[in-house]
């Protein structure tokens, strides 16, 4: 991996060592820029409010413009995130090694005294959440675009789970973590929360819990068990949200307080699954067969038992191979038993979930 220094920033030698060690593992070599704080300050007009793109659980994100005209996004990690230099460097190395058309690309990093920043390629259409759940913007997402987004996310996850050499579980997959380029192609973001798995390990208990309410699988929400099937569950929720234009952490159905998963399963079981479709996608280009198959695949992904869920590779196969017979999805039990009464979030697992995009996380050193 080639590191280029922009602007003469003072980098601790361990940073160089850590990054350079990655040269030995046979990964594709590419450039990772070290940005000076000065260059970032200029690019963001001194971190002006106009350049602020938003704020996530790890701090604010700013838009910047480099002298050559390139646009960038700067994630300014809050000092209170508990992230030390080592964790930061792990994240940098991890992300920089991941290269796939459906993953956001890390261009470099900046270290200023106690403060760490990640520099990404800029995504002009921001994220999926902004379009999907906005009554005026959702029209921009026709079915063809939505299907392309679904397929892209699935491909990105297959890469993370299977082909990236490291087995990576994202753990916080959700609509706001799907960034969109100028052509509305999806790029999965936020790998700061991902965890590297040893090749032989398939799942583990972890005391570092990060995730978002509505997207967390039962075994993760209740027992902190993480595996690639945790992401499959979140992908299933995302798929149902993309098809329906509805959020999973809301209640649907007038008589019973069903969440999106329960509602989708009920409709599917009654042979009325197409009632789930967001009416805004119903035009001539919309293949109802394709939509129906997506709902079916989504329901297979959100099954309570991790072992019942397909792998992301299977998901890609199911989405692309129309003749493949799909098994019936099992009825969701977990949500009926635990969430049907509006249990206050604080009573479920206050330290490990988020509501309305505010993620609350327990961060302990690795
Ligand atoms: N590379 C990027 N290009 C354009 N916008 C971005 C980029 N990265 C992040 N953003 C935007 O910045 C905002 C904050 O993003 P961030 O990933 O920090 O938080 P989040 O995903 O909204 O929340 P959480 O931290 O809970 O996952 C979001 O609106 C996101 O769309």
Order of helical and strand elements: EHEHEEEHEEHHEEEEEHEHHHHHHEE
Small ligands present: adenosine-5'-triphosphate
CATH architecture of the largest domain: Orthogonal Bundle
What is the CATH homology-level superfamily of the largest domain?
Transferase(Phosphotransferase) domain 1
For this structure, what is the CATH class of the largest domain? Mainly Alpha
Tell me what you see in this structure:
The chain has 12 helices and 15 strands. α5 packs antiparallel against α7, α5 runs antiparallel to α10 and α7 runs antiparallel to α9. The protein has 366 residues and is an alpha+beta fold. β1, α1 and β2 form a beta-alpha-beta unit. The chain has 2 domains: 118 residues, Phosphorylase Kinase, domain 1, CATH 3.30.200.20; 220 residues, Transferase(Phosphotransferase) domain 1 (Transferase(Phosphotransferase), domain 1, Orthogonal Bundle). Strands 1-2-6-7-5-4-3 form a 7-stranded mixed β-sheet. Bound molecules: adenosine-5'-triphosphate (ATP). The site of adenosine-5'-triphosphate (ATP) has 24 residues, from β3 and β5. One of its GO terms (cellular component) is plasma membrane. Its EC number is 2.7.11.1. It is found in: Cell membrane. Its main location: membrane.
Could you list some keywords that capture this structure?
12 helices, binds adenosine-5'-triphosphate, disordered C terminus, 2 domains, 366 residues, Transferase(Phosphotransferase), domain 1, carbohydrate binding, 18% strand, Phosphorylase Kinase, domain 1, EC 2.7.11.1, 7-stranded mixed beta sheet, serine/threonine-protein kinase, alpha+beta, two-stranded antiparallel sheet
């Amino acid at each position: 991996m080639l590191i280029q220094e922009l602007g003469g920033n003072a980098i601790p030698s361990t940073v160089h060592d850590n990054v350079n060690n990655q040269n030995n593992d046979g990964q594709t070599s590419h450039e990772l820029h070290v940005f000076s704080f000065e260059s970032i300050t200029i690019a963001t007009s001194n971190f002006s409010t106009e350049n602020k793109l938003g704020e996530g659980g790890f701090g604010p994100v700013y838009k910047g413009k480099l002298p050559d005209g390139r646009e960038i996004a700067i994630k300014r990690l809050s000092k209170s995130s508990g992230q030390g230099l080592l964790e930061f460097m792990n994240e940098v190395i991890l992300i920089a090694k991941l290269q796939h058309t459906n993953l956001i690309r890390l261009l470099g990093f900046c270290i200023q005294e106690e403060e760490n920043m990640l520099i990404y390629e800029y995504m002009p259409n921001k994220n999926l959440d902004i379009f999907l759940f906005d009554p005026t913007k959702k029209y921009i997402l026709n079915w063809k675009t939505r299907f392309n987004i679904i397929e892209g996310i699935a491909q990105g996850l297959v890469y993370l789970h299977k082909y990236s050499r490291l087995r990576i579980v994202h753990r916080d997959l959700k609509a706001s973590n799907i960034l969109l380029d100028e052509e509305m192609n999806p790029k999965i973001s936020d790998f700061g929360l991902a965890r590297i798995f040893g090749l032989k390990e398939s799942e583990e208990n972890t005391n570092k819990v990060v995730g978002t309410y509505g997207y967390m699988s039962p075994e993760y929400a209740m027992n902190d068990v993480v595996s690639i099937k945790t992401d499959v569950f979140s992908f299933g929720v995302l798929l149902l949200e993309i098809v329906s234009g509805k959020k999973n952490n809301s209640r649907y159905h007038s008589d019973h307080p069903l969440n999106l998963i329960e509602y989708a399963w009920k409709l599917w079981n009654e042979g009325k699954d197409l009632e789930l479709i967001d009416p805004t996608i119903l035009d001539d280009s919309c293949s109802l067969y394709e939509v129906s198959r997506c709902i079916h695949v989504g329901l297979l992904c959100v099954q309570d038992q991790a072992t019942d869920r397909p792998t992301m590779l299977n998901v890609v196969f199911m989405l692309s191979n129309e003749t493949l017979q799909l098994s019936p999805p099992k009825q969701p039990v977990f949500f009926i038993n635990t969430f049907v009464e509006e249990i206050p979030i604080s009573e479920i697992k206050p330290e490990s979930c988020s509501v309305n995009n505010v993620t609350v996380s327990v961060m302990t050193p690795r």
